[in-house]
Amino acid sequence: MTERRPSTWRLAGRLAWYRPGLLLLSLVFFVAASSSMVLIGWLLQQIFTTLGGGAAAGFDGLGLIAVLAAVEVTRIAASWAGVLRTLYWERLRGLLRLNLLRAQLASGGPGAGSLPSSTGEAVSRFRDDVDDFLYLCEMTVFVAGELLFAVGAITIMLSIDPLMTIAVLLPLAAMVFTTRSVSNRIRDRRVAYRRASGAVAGLLGEMFGAVLAVKTAQAGGGILGRLAELNERRSRAGLRDQLATDLLDTFNRLTVDLSVGLVLLLAVPAMHSGRFTVGDLALFAGYAAALVAMPRYVGRLIAGHRRAGVAVDRMTALLPAGSPAALVTHRPLFDAEPPPAPYLRAPGPLRSLQVRGLTAVHPGSGRGVHDVDLTLTAGTLTVITGPAGAGKTTLLRALLGLLPGQAGELFWNGEPVADRAAFLVPPRSAYVPQVPRLFSEPLRDNLLLGSEDAAGLDGVVRSAVFDDDLAAMPDGLDTAVGTRGVRLSGGQVQRVAIARALVRRPDLLVLDDVSSAMDVHTERQLWDRLLTRSDRALLVVSNRPATIARADQVVRLDHGRAHPGRERLAA
Ligand SMILES: Nc1ncnc2c1ncn2[C@@H]1O[C@H](COP(=O)(O)OP(=O)(O)OP(=O)(O)O)[C@@H](O)[C@H]1O
């Protein structure tokens, strides 16, 4: 049985309590603004009573007007306290996004298949669903202030004329009832709209990521057609979503007019009979004008609650291992301590790295690697080989902690490693994936990636067999590599990525099939230069005979199981 998720209200309450001080201050300002409205209505009544020759409560006409002006100024000042609210909401927004991001990082991110859909679609969840959920918190605090005003105003109105008060309130009650009954439809339309928006964002992201594939397959027309189709669906869904909210708003406005009309109708005979004064009418008109907005606010709150429920479900899908409560877990937005220095060298240079019983299975497919044992020694080359889909990449990523593994232990020089992802980083380890990505920045920045250690660049460029290429580039290290490195050949991108890894001077260099786009001569040079150091272990995925021939150890993977052995040639 699936666990029931905490209610949307509960989650919103937990989130709102993230900064209790700021929340209470916001509430104080809302209450100040709304109670000043009650005061303004009462002052209006007193002014009109005085003007009509009646006795007012202790002030003359001018005195009352001065008090009214003062209260109005206070009210305006209170509403300017919005700056404070912005501070508060930005913190809540930050916390939600931080929790989503942490969950994604912990589960291995998109590479581990932890997204429910495309990355573009996930970005829309980070942006729009976070805002939908925050809207509920914001609306709740706002409506709480308005409700306080309503209670004060209704109490005063009831003490003046109960019948007239009911005439004001009845249509408003009808509004709340109607809003409640259509709220399910509002939720469904919001779900449909978010889904349609996500599909457009997702396709756009994938289109940009696969521009070359689209061009070479001459599939531009087809893709654009699909985009137009999804866009059309989104605009229809958006229209329906907006229409539902707007119709409700219009109905609410009409009800408000009805309410004011009723008061006027009832006021005429009451004033004739003398039990209702001009001052009373001013008070009722003032309060009714403010009260009529109430049901609209309550309506928006109810609709907002529906939308927030959808947002919670969509955000929860980004928490592969977490419950919705993890969305609103309180934690500091900024780490108190600076992150540990990445270039810390401990606990001693690599002599050996042992992997015992490593098991990592992709939840989506049930495929992966099972019970793999491996020992890497400094100064040696270990090659992982095996057919497509055997689990080679999965093994590397699980070993480095980039995928959540189900079992397995790691020992660095015999010492157990508790947190692989945190431990196997430069300068202990560097990883070059199967399809390395470069930034649209000059070569130098791509190599350094923020490191200030530029002294050894010539050496690493040579080790990665990129020295001749670089010498042929008129701008040298200042060469712009184009968007994601498109101005370089596939083999050049691979070698730049290797050089980038070497800049970090890793003890363990992990390369996933990085010689696939190199000619035999370049590949041989690469191993010649990389294998000169006795203090570095190389772990390489490859099926190339030239690479396997250089290996000190070959591990053949088949259906996720390792078969160690010294193989000179790939099968
Ligand atoms: N994110 C994922 N979600 C679900 N299944 C996955 C995921 N990534 C890989 N797999 C599956 O796990 C198995 C191992 O994949 P892996 O990429 O490790 O194979 P490989 O040996 O590196 O293949 P290749 O030589 O083609 O790169 C495959 O069957 C693949 O379909």
From TrEMBL:
Pfam families in alphabetical order: ABC_membrane, ABC_tran
Keyword ATP-binding in record: yes
GO molecular function: ATP binding
Location of the ABC transmembrane type-1 domain: 24-288
Leader sequence residues: none
The keyword Ribosomal protein is annotated on this UniProt entry: no
InterPro entries, alphabetized: AAA+_ATPase, ABC1_TM_dom, ABC1_TM_sf, ABC_transporter-like_ATP-bd, P-loop_NTPase, Type_1_exporter
Superkingdom, natural source: Bacteria
Lipid bilayer topology: Multi-pass membrane protein
Domain ABC transporter: start-end pairs: 353-571
Broad class of where this protein is predominantly found: membrane
Protein name listed in UniProt: ABC transporter ATP-binding protein
Organism: Pseudonocardia humida
Phylogenetic placement of the source organism: Bacteria, Bacillati, Actinomycetota, Actinomycetes, Pseudonocardiales
